[in-house]
């Protein structure tokens, strides 16, 4: 019988599909912690689509940056959040449920497809975690983001 | 002796006063869950002032959309969040306390009455839940919202 | 042997350094609670850099308001949140860990140093609480804030 792939294997597949590595230390941009746990809840700091030292998707969505690029950015943010969860929890198989994702999009004045940007993150979360990767979500359009990132995502998850 | 109305009855009264129905399935705009529970906490996704398939209050507050319209929008967002809580918890009488409400307002460059927009939501929460409907709150002015909504609101609540 | 200063004493030192008092009732701008507790978690409402009845740092960061002024504003926001925590918990020595801080910055179109603004808040939290004051953090640039504030900060903390 074929074995069911672990979520960590699914994560590695998703990273390969995106063409990026999320191994090793993930650079953060200020004086804070990447993850903090309380009871079975784990908070993950706001993630921009950074790979190594480069923010891969920058600029204002709907004015120079496309929806498709923003969705790619949201996927990278989600992968970073999952990589941090994996480090903190030992394995993504220890995640019971992602509870909340907030997706901030640096957008043009009239760009309203913010949920569609958020769907990029949702696709990653569900591909890796299955039903545990279907959280509540809030998507909003903001005026700027750190490092001129097009997307920023933060998360609260519950561990098993 | 007059009986004390249940919170569900107060919710129905508030819906009638607003002139909208929040029965049945509430349409959402993307790939996520409306509510997720962990322990006694329940997270509710960002709600725009949608009734059926129509977002009732759209546009930029302070530039075409008025404070009063935005407050009406915030009330509808709050009613949607309560409707989802009611579905998830069986009855609003099972809500111990609303813990956090975040109110995002699509606003003009110089529109600063963001707390006043949030007060629209607070009025609904308190009218239906009493002291349990007085949460912590954050109100901010953003650049755009899904579907050109004027207001978006998300929530964390504790169940009894 | 020199005694280790309590966190409440460190808070008072930080207030003196900033040149502001955070004693007494802290004015809030709407119909909500400053703090709400659930289990060992405590939510703190969005704080603007208000001292008494005056918002000390206003305007758009990067367009009239400087990064340094915004950092000062973020410090005041953080002090207000700590003052509320102290009131709610009896003493800051009862805080186990700050879990999440979200920093909203009213910024210019091209102002990307949002994490640097957030670092102002982080410095206060760490100076007063030590490692317990190193939370997860999300910093975003928004279009407006209540009372034309340059910064707003909300928080979730765990009590011992």
Description of the structure:
- The structure is a homotrimer of 160-residue chains.
- By secondary structure, the first copy, chain A, is of the alpha/beta class.
- Helices cover 32% and strands 29% of the residues of chain A.
- The first copy, chain A, has 3 helices and 9 strands.
- In chain A, the strands form 3 sheets. Chain A has a 5-stranded mixed beta sheet, covered by helices on one side. The first copy, chain A, has a two-stranded antiparallel ribbon with strand order 3-4.
- The longest helix of chain A has 23 residues, at 67-89.
- The A-B interface holds A 39-41, 96-102, 105, 107-116, 118-119, 122-123, 126, 134-143, 156, 158 and B 29-36, 38-39, 41, 43-46, 102, 104, 106, 142-148, 152, 154, 156.
In the CATH hierarchy, the architecture of chain A is: 2-Layer Sandwich
Overall structural class of chain A, as computed from helix and strand content, comes to alpha/beta
Number of helical regions of chain A = 3
Described by strand count, sense and barrel closure, the largest sheet of chain A is:
5 strands, mixed
The strand order across the widest sheet of chain A is 1-2-9-7-8
Instruction: Report the end-to-end length of chain A measured between terminal Cα atoms.
Output: 27 Å
What fraction of residues of chain A sit in β-strands? Answer: 25-35%
Q: Tally of extended strands of chain A? A: 9
The name CATH uses for the topology of chain A is 60s Ribosomal Protein L30, Chain: A
Q: For this structure, what is the CATH class of chain A?
A: Alpha Beta
The chain pair with the largest interface is: A-B, 38 and 28 residues
Can you give the mean pLDDT of chain A?
A: 95
């Amino acid at each position: 019988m074929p074995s069911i792939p672990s979520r960590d294997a699914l994560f590695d597949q998703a990273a390969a599909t995106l063409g990026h590595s999320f191994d090793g230390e993930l650079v953060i941009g200020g004086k804070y912690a990447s993850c903090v746990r309380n009871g079975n809840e784990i908070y993950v700091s706001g993630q921009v689509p950074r790979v190594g030292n480069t923010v891969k998707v920058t600029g204002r969505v709907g004015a120079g940056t496309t929806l498709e690029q923003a969705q790619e950015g949201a996927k990278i943010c989600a992968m970073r959040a999952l990589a941090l969860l994996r480090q903190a929890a030992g394995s993504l198989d220890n995640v019971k449920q992602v509870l909340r994702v907030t997706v901030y999009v640096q957008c043009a004045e009239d760009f309203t497809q913010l949920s569609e940007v958020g769907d990029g993150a949702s696709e990653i979360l569900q591909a890796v975690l299955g039903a545990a990767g279907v959280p509540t979500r809030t998507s909003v359009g903001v005026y700027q983001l750190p490092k001129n990132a097009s997307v920023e995502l933060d998360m609260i998850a519950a561990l098993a």
